[in-house]
């Protein structure tokens, strides 16, 4: 039986998600609010806007949101949940996921990522290429862990935060909600909510709007 997957968001991020989905046996259909001005992404046609998808009024279509912006991804996921769509998670075949890890709906885990024992990944997260989430970490809802990030054991990352490419976070450190950790940072102490922090060691530099 052919499995159909609606992907909301026709972007570079969406391309990677489509590739994962096809490797998992799905036939993908893109929906993007730029339609009808944008009708294709690479060889994949775009079938309509998010509103057009919702107007289909069906709960039989699996759906994933492929939008990198945490706030917009949250909005789209909540809208789809309110309309009773079946929000799924996608895990690349080369990712290594502990049998004791917990992954909530709407999360996408990219190639080469490692999620170790008793880690918990929230709703609508992105665990990007080759990221490592060690034992007992908690990644809260709608957070993006970028490529090659390494989170040591027991790290907590708050909701709607962004941990930049190549960053490293020391064990048992907490990063607050709605934070931005700059690329290549080394986080060795707790970071409060709503700040941008970067450097080695990472220092909170400014409030994040």
Please tell me about this protein's structure:
- Helix content is 15%, strand content 32%.
- With 209 residues, it is of the alpha/beta class.
- It is globular, with a radius of gyration of 17 Å.
Provide a brief overview of the structure.
By secondary structure, the chain is of the alpha/beta class. The protein has helices at 12-23, 50-55, 70-82, and strands at 3-8, 26-31, 40-41, 44-45, 62-65, 86-87, 90-91, 96-97, 102-103, 108-109, 114-115, 120-121, 126-127, 132-133, 138-139, 144-145, 150-151, 156-157, 162-163, 168-169, 174-175, 180-181, 186-187, 195-199, 202-207. The mean pLDDT is 96.
> Overall pLDDT, averaged?
96
Shape estimate: globular
DSSP summary, beta strand count: 25
Helix content: 10-25%
Give the DSSP E fraction (strand runs of 2 or more residues): 25-35%
- Trace the largest sheet across and list its strands: 7-10-13-16-19-22-24-25
Distance between the termini: 46 Å
Largest sheet: 8 strands, mixed
Please provide the ordered H/E string of secondary-structure elements: EHEEEHEHEEEEEEEEEEEEEEEEEEEE
Q: How large is the count of helical segments?
A: 3
Protein structure class: alpha/beta
What's the alpha carbon Rg, rounded to whole Å?
Answer: 17 Å
Low-confidence stretches: none
